[in-house]
Write a structure and sequence with these properties.
Elements lengths: L1 H32 L13 E7 L6 H9 L8 E8 L5 H6 L6 E6 L4 H8 L7 E5 L4 E2 L3 H6 L7 E10 L5 H23 L9 E5 L13 H10 L4 E12 L4 H21 L11 H12 L1 H12 L6 H18 L10 H19 L19 H7 L1
Parallel strand pairs: 1-2, 1-4, 2-3, 6-8
Antiparallel strand pairs: 4-7, 5-8, 6-7
Helix pairs in contact: 1-6, 1-9, 1-10, 6-12, 8-12, 11-12
Length: about 375
């Protein structure tokens, strides 16, 4: 039994290392040898912006101004703001832009999928551009994103998220996690396709749009995967930049619960995801679902430690106690304390892994209950106004 626990611990540890570090290294190696370039062009296609929002008065003015400031012909842009029964000044502010051709569509409270479904039939653009309310756009981002649709194999294109510097260590660590995620998406794009898109700014051929299920948790994966299962690529354009504020760790926890629960949704919504129909099945299995099992591996390692033979048991036990103690102590340490450079990333990692475990709630509660508002720091919200 002790030897079995030691073997189990080592296997689980190897799985964690492979999922977090080994696979990314393998991915980079494969991407360098199987590069699949995108055939871009300079054609300016008509687009329809769909911007679902609920109570976004703090951000909507800056958002709409950043869209109007895009270096793109205004006559090729249709802009629809979908107010999901907002109760603040969102509608009032949006109406102030009507003279500039921005349309306000108010719908009953139904969530983001219902808001998108309401706006899509009104779209006239060749390309649908899905935008969240909080992010602002680089003036050249739309041109750079649309250039990818010159390749007839491309069905959807994601912009690159750039997170502004955070005020706290936790906010900065969340930004570091995003850079890690974006690097993986860049390598997958070089091979063929990414898992999905960044939901706050991505484009989709209008011919590929299918009404969203009302309880979908990650529309930015569901819509692109619909096209990918028809043979189209899902790619990331690293030069099409949008800017966002860092989110508080507790808010990132809620977002992570939703997105990880969305991965489970995709399994039963796309039964062919790991069949030969998916050219990226190995990478989706390792790159996405491999990370889903990491928190369970960590839990299994803790359980296996109890019966491991000495001196392995004591070594593993002390290492795990020290690791999780760092995460627990981090909120108690003052900002700027030297040890925060170690404890803060550990706390962020543990928080995100815990969120991934909580994602199994999708099997026990209504999916809509996992939708929570993403919040930013008070300072960031003031800067947006």
């Amino acid at each position: 039994m002790p030897e079995f626990c030691l073997i189990t611990f080592c296997c689980l540890f190897a799985m964690v290392v492979y999922a977090l570090a080994g696979y990314p290294l393998l991915l980079g190696f494969i991407a360098r040898r199987h590069d699949h370039p995108i055939r871009k062009d300079d054609q300016l296609r008509s687009v329809t912006f769909i911007i679902p929002v609920h109570n976004g008065e703090k951000f909507i003015d800056a958002k709409l101004r950043s869209i109007l400031a895009l270096n793109y012909p205004r006559d090729l842009m249709q802009i629809i703001v979908v107010s999901d029964a907002s109760t603040d000044r969102t509608d009032e502010i949006a109406r102030g832009f009507e003279a500039q051709g921005i349309r306000l569509l108010r719908v009953p409270r139904g969530g983001k999928p219902a808001a998108i479904n309401a706006a899509a039939p009104l779209a006239t653009g060749e390309i649908l551009i899905f935008n969240d309310i909080r992010q602002t756009l680089h003036p050249e981002s739309l041109r750079r994103l649309i250039a990818n649709f010159g390749d007839p194999e491309v069905g959807s294109v994601s912009a690159q998220l750039s997170i502004r510097s955070g005020d706290t260590n936790a906010e900065q660590d969340t930004g570091l996690y995003w850079r890690y995620e974006l690097w993986i998406r860049q390598q997958m794009t070089r091979i063929h396709s990414t898992w999905g898109t960044t939901g706050c700014y991505y484009g989709l051929r209008r011919t590929l749009f299918t009404p969203l299920p009302p309880d979908i948790l990650i529309d930015d994966a569901w819509l692109p995967l619909q096209g990918m299962m028809q043979g189209f690529r899902v790619v990331l354009e690293p030069t099409a930049t949008m800017y966002d504020f860092p989110t508080a760790l507790h808010s990132e926890f809620r977002r992570k619960v939703r997105t990880q629960a969305g991965l489970f949704q995709m399994l039963w919504m796309f039964p062919g995801l790991f069949s030969s129909r998916n050219p990226m099945r190995f990478h989706f299995l390792c790159g996405k679902y491999g990370r889903v099992i990491v928190p369970w591996c960590l839990l299994g390692m803790a359980a296996a430690t109890i019966e491991m033979p000495d001196p392995w048991r004591m070594t593993a036990l002390c290492a795990q106690i020290a690791f999780y103690l760092c995460a627990a102590l981090d909120p108690l340490l003052p900002s700027g304390f030297p040890l925060k450079k170690l404890t803060s990333p550990i706390r962020t990692f543990v928080t995100l892994m815990t969120a991934a475990m909580f994602a199994v709630r999708i099997f026990f509660v209504p999916a809509r209950s996992l939708w929570k508002e993403t919040t930013v720091s008070h300072k960031a919200a003031q800067a947006a106004e």
